Amino acid sequence: MSVDDGVQVLEDELAGLAEMLTAPRRGECLMCFANRMLVNFGCDQTLRWARRYAQLRSPQAYALRRRLARRGVFCDCEIFANGWDVTVPTVRDLHGEECWPSEVAGCRGVRTGSTQPCSLWAPRRESRLR
After folding, report:
1. What confidence tens digit (pLDDT) does each residue in 40-98 have?
2. Which residues of 91-110 are buried (b: 16+ CB within 10 A; e: fewer)?
3. Is residue 123 in some structural domain?
4. 9 falls within a domain
5. Is 73 part of a structural domain of the chain?
6. Which of 40, 72, 117, 130 has the fewest CB atoms below 10 angstroms from its CB?
């Protein structure tokens, strides 16, 4: 095996690992997936995770970006800053202030092909643009 072959093998393995780590879980909703990806990999100021979810789980979701934009969502972290709140009890910091839980576990699931949130998520009322 040449050095180039070894490099190619490593690149292929790395690509496979990245694919596995950033794939939606079976039945996982868009919001739970985006939250999990943001906790693990952060936001790059785009809809990278929302697009990835749609590509893998709902390739026919052509209006997803428009639906998110109507709620003021133009990057993945804005899904939660502007669009949806978690309905599970929030965590309190050392000063007693509510803060976002570090991970929202236990997605309640959605049907195959859906880009709707599971019942863990509720739309933020103030995010509706007029």
Report:
1. 999 999 999 999 999 999 988 889 999 999 999 999 999 999 999 888 766 665 666 66
2. eeeeeeeeeeeeebeebeeb
3. yes
4. no
5. yes
6. 130
